[in-house]
Amino acid sequence: MIAFLFPGQGSQRAGMYELLGDKANETDELFDIAKEATGRDVLSLCKDATDEELKQTYNTQLSVTAMNLAFATLLKHRGVTPDVVAGHSLGQLSALHEAGVLSTYDLFRLVNKRAELMSGLKESGKLATILGLEKNVVEAVCEETCQTTDQVRIALENSYKQYVIGGREADVDVAVAKMKEAGALKIVEIRVSNAFHTYMMEPMVEPFKEFINTLDFQEPKTKILLNSKGGYGTSASEIKEDVIRQCVNVVKWEDCMRQMLTLENLTIAEVGVGKMMSSMIRGIDRSQKVYLTSNTNDFNDLAKGV
């Protein structure tokens, strides 16, 4: 069994197109479709955008998705295809494509619309990763914070003792101080422009839903794990609903990964830039190898059929 895991925002880096190496020309059609679907030069974003430019949601989401699909394309050209797919946050949209749910053209239209709506929100929020506290402690601190502020909630459940909280910036700062008092080992502010997967995204839900309903969602051709459900999707309609709900609902990544890790003879590939997914897997099962497609040696091992 081969699993493709797709990273989301935070995996981007300036000049990441170079990681495709001498195989980059195999992705020309992909970048052409991205430009046709969005009217934007996605190739230039992946080649030339600075780290500061890539932090902007409107740029991040398209560039990350393009790189995810670029590495997936290279693997497919070498006969490596997934039996199960999952994507973390934004990465879930890449997983939809690899499961055959959305065409390449519609995928880029969807990502572009999602980024546009998120970038257009009037209020901005904040996300922070809390390391070293159990879920019930993080939830209790959030509840305590909410007694004197607006909502602060868990936005992403990444792995055991790694949770991301989100809300308005000042409220998250209050919660972060309380998390430190509660014994958090480390707290990391995430390089994103808003509090994704929280109530801060509610204004975008209706226009996003309207847009999604214009797209042709097909039945999945491979097993796909869904963020909001925390388990396998069974139909195109369920997948569509999860994509909408994911905007404001917690990402149950740990639940998804624990289900995936029960599969026998499992080979896991992180399909995209970096090792974000690998790091999260290590927080669940340190013995599990994850092959990094942006690492030349790992890519070659996958291509050889490890």
TrEMBL record:
Entry's Gene Ontology BP terms: fatty acid biosynthetic process
Keywords assigned by UniProt, alphabetized? Acyltransferase, Transferase
User: An example Gene Ontology cellular component term from the record?
Assistant: cytosol
The record, for InterPro entries, names: Ac_transferase_dom_sf, Acyl_transferase_dom, Acyl_Trfase/lysoPLipase, Mal-CoA-ACP_Trans/PKS_FabD, Malonyl_CoA-ACP_transAc, Malonyl_transacylase_ACP-bd
Q: Which reaction does this enzyme catalyse, per its entry?
A: holo-[ACP] + malonyl-CoA = malonyl-[ACP] + CoA
Its EC number(s):
2.3.1.39
Return one GO MF term. Answer: [acyl-carrier-protein] S-malonyltransferase activity
User: Where do the catalytic residues lie?
Assistant: S89, H197
| Residue stretches making up the Malonyl-CoA:ACP transacylase (MAT) domain | 5-299
Query: Is Transferase one of the keywords UniProt gives this record?
Result: yes
The UniProt entry's sequence similarity note says:
Belongs to the fabD family.
| Full protein name | Malonyl CoA-acyl carrier protein transacylase
Question: Native species of this protein?
Answer: Roseburia intestinalis
Q: Species lineage, top-down?
A: Bacteria, Bacillati, Bacillota, Clostridia, Lachnospirales
